[in-house]
């Protein structure tokens, strides 16, 4: 797995070192640098799709037919003319003046900046929605600086990272360039695993999808992937609409969509402020709503909201200044209002909104009474990239089946995640599938659950998941033992190679163990496919129970607390062991201090 945080910091350090050595300000530098990342990522996807096209390509007279722009359009991908391909730019001669290169209008180019500007213009010709969007200020850069930036961003790790990679690196860079922009009004990048969870539960297949706080477009990217994986073409079956107040983000969203071959209508600026404008006139028209809106926004003008409508449950609390002190329930009301008679919504929201009081509680009661709240998921800390706050995922479904019409599924997933590093958690692919499986069983979609069990068996083999896990753990122990023995007995020249070979095998075995653990986690709770409430994890509650809980939508209020599992470790024995380790470390530390002291005396210090 690519260490995306390491990649980001490496890219940033190199790029910022160059900025510091130039006369450009952060604002002049930010978008052009992101434009180069766009170019590199677009090239990565271009090569991947080109390989797919060439796989089944007919040949004439022994020559394979060359790929064309139309081939890429059929695959929902962005076509790059030769002069806009990253390796072409990377391998240009140092002396651009002497190379006699002409731009798309036939004029001779005299600097690398002109060549990169030309590449951006050629790409804009391939995608109507990119016209006027891509940065074209590369003549502000010296040829040496631009050449070095192209080299820095030619990082193969960018080939391996899917989803909204541009958005993720963009936020990292923007946060470094201008922190006040990145954290303005509670705006921050939506992590991939939260986006995937929303998309997997909403299951967009055809119709209108709106994200009224679309940022860099992650919801669109993931939805497009979901549709394309079902064998349909996202651009043919879906219509994407977005609103984004920050122009920078809207620009990035269009770039991001273009790289993934998606077309959409994105509005930005003041007219796209979703608090006051339904910019696409989509109230009551949407099949799907997905969003990660800014949380806890204050000082929202109440009269402007009222005249903008989309408030089926009434206004939240208005203060004496005729302002709404917290915009969370404006968003929640808008998302519901945008849906058509069978629409689904999934969005991220501040945890506090699930049981906030006052007018919020009245709105929440009316919302629950519609019977359109489908599922609520609590998410733990450290899922967000630049914030550590917990959140909830809310799901509405106006087309719920009769069996669950007056019910809501509550999932408390705060203790279910994979640690990426000290400050970041996520759901792995298998954890996403497991959480999704709970929703399938609640909806009565047992065939999807069965398909997931078969997927586990295809990876792990047949038999009891518990037995497979024990077997894999035994294999890992044997592998580690063998590795130690062989490395210890190897000659000095072979040690590194043998260690690397075993490290790879041990890593692969650990990956299998992780998958087996997830299979056991799922199967011990739901067996061959029967939904059951699980203490501390999930519960289906009806409207009566929700009313008894004061109309709270906090999963923890319903699922209870799971019993603490006995890990089989003898507490006293473990404490004695830790004490022995501590004494041993203290002795080592004292020996080391004595040695340092003697050495310093020997040096006359």
Automatic annotation (TrEMBL):
Positions of transmembrane segments: none
InterPro entries: D12N6_MeTrfase_N, DNA_methylase_A-5, SAM-dependent_MTases_sf, T1MK-like_N_sf, Type-I_RE_MTase_Subunit
GO molecular function, one term: site-specific DNA-methyltransferase (adenine-specific) activity
Organism of derivation: Zhenpiania hominis
One family name in Pfam for this protein: N6_Mtase
Residue span(s) of domain N6 adenine-specific DNA methyltransferase N-terminal: 7-153
Key words of the record: Coiled coil, Methyltransferase, Restriction system, S-adenosyl-L-methionine, Transferase
Coiled coil among keywords: yes
Catalytic activity: a 2'-deoxyadenosine in DNA + S-adenosyl-L-methionine = an N(6)-methyl-2'-deoxyadenosine in DNA + S-adenosyl-L-homocysteine + H(+)
PANTHER family: TYPE I RESTRICTION ENZYME HINDI METHYLASE SUBUNIT, TYPE I RESTRICTION ENZYME HINDVIIP M PROTEIN-RELATED
Domain DNA methylase adenine-specific as annotated: residue spans: 163-437
The name this protein goes by in its record: site-specific DNA-methyltransferase (adenine-specific)
GO biological process: DNA restriction-modification system; methylation
Family: Belongs to the N(4)/N(6)-methyltransferase family.
Coiled coil start-end: 462-489
Biological classification of the source: Bacteria, Bacillati, Bacillota, Clostridia, Peptostreptococcales
EC number assigned by the record: 2.1.1.72
């Amino acid at each position: 797995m690519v260490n995306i945080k390491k990649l980001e910091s490496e890219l940033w350090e190199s790029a910022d070192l160059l900025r510091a050595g130039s006369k450009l300000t952060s604002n002049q530098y930010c978008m052009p640098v992101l434009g180069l990342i766009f170019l590199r990522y677009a090239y990565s996807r271009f090569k991947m799709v080109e390989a797919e096209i060439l796989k089944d390509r007919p040949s004439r007279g022994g020559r394979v037919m060359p790929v064309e722009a139309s081939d890429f359009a059929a695959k929902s991908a962005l076509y790059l003319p030769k002069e806009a391909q990253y390796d072409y730019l990377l391998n240009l001669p140092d002396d651009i003046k002497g190379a006699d290169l002409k731009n798309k209008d036939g004029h001779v180019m005299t600097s690398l900046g002109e060549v990169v500007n030309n590449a951006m213009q050629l790409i804009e010709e391939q995608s109507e929605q990119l016209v006027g969007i891509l940065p074209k200020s590369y003549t502000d850069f010296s040829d040496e600086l631009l050449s070095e930036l192209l080299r820095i961003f030619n990082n193969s790790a960018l080939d391996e990272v899917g989803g909204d990679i541009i958005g993720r690196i963009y936020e990292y860079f923007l946060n470094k360039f201008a922190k006040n922009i990145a954290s303005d009004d509670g705006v921050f990048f939506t992590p991939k695993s939260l986006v995937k969870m929303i998309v997997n539960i909403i299951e967009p297949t055809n119709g209108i999808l709106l994200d009224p706080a679309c940022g860099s477009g992650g919801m669109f990217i993931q939805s497009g992937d979901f549709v394309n994986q079902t064998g349909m073409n996202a651009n043919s079956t879906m219509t994407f609409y977005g609103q984004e107040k920050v122009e920078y983000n809207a620009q990035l969203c269009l770039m991001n969509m273009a790289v993934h071959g998606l077309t959409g209508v994105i509005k930005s600026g003041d007219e796209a402020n979703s608090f006051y404008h339904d910019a696409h006139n989509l109230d009551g028209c949407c099949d799907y709503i997905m969003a990660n809106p800014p949380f806890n926004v204050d000082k929202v003008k109440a009269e402007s909201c009222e005249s903008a409508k989309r408030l089926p449950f009434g206004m939240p609390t208005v203060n004496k200044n005729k302002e709404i002190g917290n915009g969370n329930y404006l968003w929640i009301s808008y998302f519901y209002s945008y849906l058509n008679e069978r629409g689904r919504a999934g969005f991220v929201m501040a945890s506090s909104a699930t049981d906030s009081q006052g007018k919020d509680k009245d709105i929440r009661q009316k919302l629950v009474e519609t019977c359109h709240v489908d599922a609520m998921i609590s998410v733990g800390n450290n899922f967000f990239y630049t914030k550590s706050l917990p959140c909830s995922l809310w799901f509405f479904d106006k087309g719920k089946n009769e069996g669950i019409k007056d019910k809501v599924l509550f999932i408390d997933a705060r203790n279910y995640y994979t640690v990426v590093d000290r400050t970041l958690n996520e759901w792995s692919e298998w954890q996403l599938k497991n959480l999704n499986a709970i929703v399938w069983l609640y909806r009565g979609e047992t065939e999807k659950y069965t398909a997931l069990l078969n997927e586990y068996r295809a990876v792990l083999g047949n038999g009891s998941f518990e037995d497979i896990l024990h077997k894999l753990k035994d294999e890992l122990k044997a592998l580690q033992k063998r590795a130690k023995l062989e490395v210890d007995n190897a000659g000095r020249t072979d040690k590194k190679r043998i260690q690397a070979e075993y490290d790879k095998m041990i890593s692969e075995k650990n990956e299998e163990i992780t998958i087996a653990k997830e299979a056991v986690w799922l199967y011990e709770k739901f067996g061959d496919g029967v939904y059951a409430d699980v203490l501390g994890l999930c519960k289906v509650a009806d409207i009566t129970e929700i009313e008894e809980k004061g109309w709270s939508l906090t999963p923890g209020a319903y699922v209870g607390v799971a019993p603490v599992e006995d890990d089989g470790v003898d507490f006293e024995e473990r404490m004695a062991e830790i004490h022995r380790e501590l004494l041993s470390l203290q002795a080592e530390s004292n020996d080391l201090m004595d040695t340092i002291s003697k050495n310093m005396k020997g040096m006359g210090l």
